[in-house]
């Protein structure tokens, strides 16, 4: 994990600028607003993380390697399609011993917060594990939460 200084400079893009304008008008500080939104985001991700098998998580993470995740409105919605392509074109379901079509159906039935949680976990997993030799089971559980890996 990268050590971030407590006080740091920050580029404020249009999305953050709009959010800050809406919240700081009521007297909340910029720092308070950013920290509140980060807390809410992390709690949403934690509560929305779906329960999947280790193989399903590995297939998803493998398929999302290098996935361009911006803007959120299209990136989150494209996860099922990306996994479907990975199954159909790259046979990642065979690599990870998973029913690929069933996984795609599960993804299509998930809520937007669940898919956002998957995207967040995948990004964190790749940041921590890209190019590193690692215990796959342990690293996936660290990214998604111990209780979100099933024994199916």
Task: Describe the secondary-structure layout.
Layout: H1 14-24, H2 30-48, E1 52-53, H3 54-63, H4 72-75, H5 79-90, H6 92-95, H7 100-109, H8 112-129, H9 136-144, E2 149-150
Parallel strand pairs: 1-2
Helix pairs in contact: 2-8, 5-7, 8-9
Average pLDDT metric: 92
Helix percent band? 55-70%
| N to C succession of SSEs | HHEHHHHHHHE
- Number of E-state strands: 2
Strand content: under 5%
What order do the strands of the largest sheet run in, or round the barrel if closed? 1-2
Biggest sheet details: 2 strands, parallel
Which structural class fits the helix and strand makeup? Answer: mainly alpha
How many structural domains can be distinguished in the coordinates? 2
Morphology: elongated
- Low-pLDDT stretches are none
If helices are DSSP runs of H or I spanning 4 or more residues, what is the number of helices? 9
Cα Rg: 17 Å
Distance between the termini: 30 Å
């Amino acid at each position: 994990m990268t050590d971030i200084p407590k006080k740091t400079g920050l580029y404020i893009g249009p999305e953050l600028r709009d959010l800050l304008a809406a919240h700081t008008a009521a007297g909340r500080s910029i720092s308070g607003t950013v920290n509140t939104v980060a807390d809410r985001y992390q709690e949403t991700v934690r509560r929305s993380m779906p329960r999947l098998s280790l193989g399903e998580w590995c297939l998803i993470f493998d398929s999302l390697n290098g996935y361009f995740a911006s803007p959120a409105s299209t990136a989150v919605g494209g996860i099922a399609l990306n996994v479907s392509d990975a199954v159909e074109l790259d046979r990642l379901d065979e690599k990870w011993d998973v029913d690929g079509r069933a996984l795609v159906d599960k993804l299509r039935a998930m809520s937007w917060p669940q898919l956002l949680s998957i995207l967040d976990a995948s990004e964190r997993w790749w940041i921590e594990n890209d190019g590193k030799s690692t215990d796959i089971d342990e690293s996936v559980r660290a990214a998604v939460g111990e209780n979100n890996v099933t024994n199916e």
